[in-house]
Amino acid sequence: MKRSDSRNLRAFDGGAEKKDEVGFLTGSFNRMIGRIDELVNSVQRSEIMRKEAEYLMLQAQIKPHFLYNTLETIRMLAHSNGDAPVSELTNNLARFVRYSLSRQNDTATIADELEHIRSYLSVHQTRFGDRMKFEIEAEEGVGSQRCPRFILQPLVENSIEHGISKIRRIGLIRIRCYRAEDRYTVITISDSGPGKMHRN
Asked: Which GO terms describe its cellular component (predicted)?
């Protein structure tokens, strides 16, 4: 029993089968050793999980930073080579990614949301070329109003997927923000997809 410590948790081999006091003490000792061994293993597993969680958190911090720097490097290389379209595309993509990955509140100002959507639409505009145009209009004073983050992106995605991508002519996406009856902030998203002007 004296040999048992935190580095050598082994049950005592002899005496447990006896029915006297020695057997009782040996059985109790072995059960205690088993319980301590379980606790030690549990603590070790918890420590390993904690280390893994810290590593994953570190990865989450590094990856966005690495991505931002890489996109900025691409933008600078394109700019130095006189490739304005690639430089502008990379800049818009970097702004979009930075907003998407930033850890902020669940809400944002309408102005921030519109700027995010402007970057998003600019990236798609590079894809569609002259086939896609967009307009963003915001009445004075509505930009400071708060709304859920990313509330506009799914609707704009819908306009692109089911509207602009379905036509061969020039397509238009229009976003308007204004006050109604001095009580409500209204945001409309419309596109010139198939059929009449579709509004979300």
From this structure: plasma membrane
pLDDT the model gives residue 25: 72
Average pLDDT of the chain is: 80
Calpha distance 171→147 (Å, rounded): 27
How big, in percent rounded to 5, are the helix, strand and coil portions of the chain?
55, 20, 25
pLDDT of residue 101: 78
Chain position carrying tokens 């996406």: 173
Distance CA 175, CA 138 (A): 8
Residue 175 identity: I
What's the residue count for the chain?
Answer: 200
> How many C-beta neighbours within 10 Å does residue 75 have?
20
Each residue's pLDDT tens digit, 35-90: 777 766 666 665 676 666 566 556 556 567 777 888 899 999 999 999 999 999 99
CA 180 – CA 139 distance, rounded (Å): 11
Q: Would you kindly state where each structural domain of the chain is located, as residue ranges?
A: 21-61, 62-103, 109-195
What secondary structure letter does DSSP report for 180?
E
Sign of CA dihedral 122, 124, 127, 131: negative
Gyration radius of the chain's alpha carbons: 31
Q: Would you state the CATH architecture of domain 109-195?
A: 2-Layer Sandwich (3.30)
